[in-house]
Amino acid sequence: MTKNTKVKAAILIIGNEILSGRTQDTNTSSIALWLNSIGVKVNEVRVIPDIENTIVDTVNLLRKVNDYVFTTGGIGPTHDDITAQSISKAFNLEYEIHKEAFKILESYYKLGEFNEGRQKMVWMPRNANLILNPTSGAPGFNIENVFCLPGVPSILKSMLGGLKNKIAGGDPILSYTISLKTVESEIAKSLTNVQDKNKDVEIGSYPFFQAGKLGVSIVIRSEEQGKIDNCVSQIMNFVNNKNIEIVNR
């Protein structure tokens, strides 16, 4: 891939605990922000249960229409951690002990602690490439354009940096935010006019409630700073004409 190519990714959150509401997903934000910084745009995010056929079908769909797919969850030591086994089926690969991963965890744990349950974390698709884990030892892995990461947010964050050389992105995706003391209906028409004149720039409006006041944050995103500056100028024109107050967030 070359620079200035639109590079797309999908994020697949795997886990019944997310769907039930017992666990809050913060991994999407961590992965998306990191991908934006290296020029990869997240095309879609899906949350699915720990069901093998669902994982297989979803991974096979997403990997065909995206440059990269990132999965989180389901690679731990418990009975419902079935992501690695499901990825093996998706790629029609043998599900087996990864020798290098075994050595890493065998040396990570104290004598006698690397039990049968923990050994489950070294079972992966044949010839998987390891994603090293500086926090808790147990590595993630990737097969072709699918990257499998743990669900624990702090561990996942610590592993992203090690992926940079494996991901070919485009230009970093830049953003600028203008927060206004207003409501969306007051700026909708003017903002639509700006978007219509700048179709290759992503402009979003997001209501917020702060210190008892309603407001709207306008977020402008592009790979080119000049295009962001141009949109900011056009937005500020109607903001000033309408005497809308700008607020700091």
Q: Roughly how many Å is the radius of gyration?
A: 22 Å
Strand order of the largest sheet: 2-1-3-8-7-6
Number of helices: 9
Question: Can you say what the CATH homologous superfamily of the largest domain is?
Answer: MoaB/Mog-like domain
CATH fold annotation of the largest domain: Molybdenum Cofactor Biosythetic Enzyme, Chain A
Question: What is the annotated CATH architecture of the largest domain?
Answer: 3-Layer(aba) Sandwich
Query: Structural class, judged by helices and strands?
Result: alpha/beta
- The whole-number mean of residue pLDDT values reads 93
Low-confidence stretches: none
**What helical percentage do the residues reach?**
25-40%
Instruction: Please identify the top-level CATH class of the largest domain.
Output: Alpha Beta
Can you tell me the number of structural domains?
Answer: 2
**Distance between the amino and carboxyl termini:** 37 Å
Topology, number of strands: 12
Largest sheet descriptor: 6 strands, mixed
